[in-house]
Predict the structure of N-acetyltransferase domain-containing protein.
Amino acid sequence: MTTLDRFQLDDLLIFNTTNLDPLTETYNLQFYLDYLSTWPEYFEVAKSCEGRVMGYAMGKSEGDEELWHGHVTAVTVAPEFRRQGLAKCLMKSLEDTTSQSYNGYFVDLFVRSSNKVAIGMYERMGYSVYRTVLKYYSDNDEDAYDMRKAMPRDPEGKSCVPLKKPITPDELEW
């Protein structure tokens, strides 16, 4: 059995094995603490009945006016727990927080352009590529796709109409 709960401070001591995937971004402790203290409602963890961290998602709210949105900073599932729908559940929770608690126009995320598995999952969940961010990932100058999904506040999906030309990281708004 899996439980979905708010991420707690002591979860930082037991979630390391979840980050072993090379496609998962790992941040420093202060980064996680900042998110946990600023946007606790956007930090979810999936645990097994034994208390093992199976996966987590963290995000935040940002923007202004028609660009007010939820942002997925990280979503990851430990390799042995994949293909069970956990990432989809974590993403749904983040989307619900964006639409119900923050009344955001959309949810966005950045994904490596080479991560075809994740891109396919996001597309099946209703996300589409809004724009390409050239050389977004500094470890190998890889491009990122900025993917978006409109929330109920944007019924016509105006916030997700794809841009025609790529941008560079210094052109990002947030």
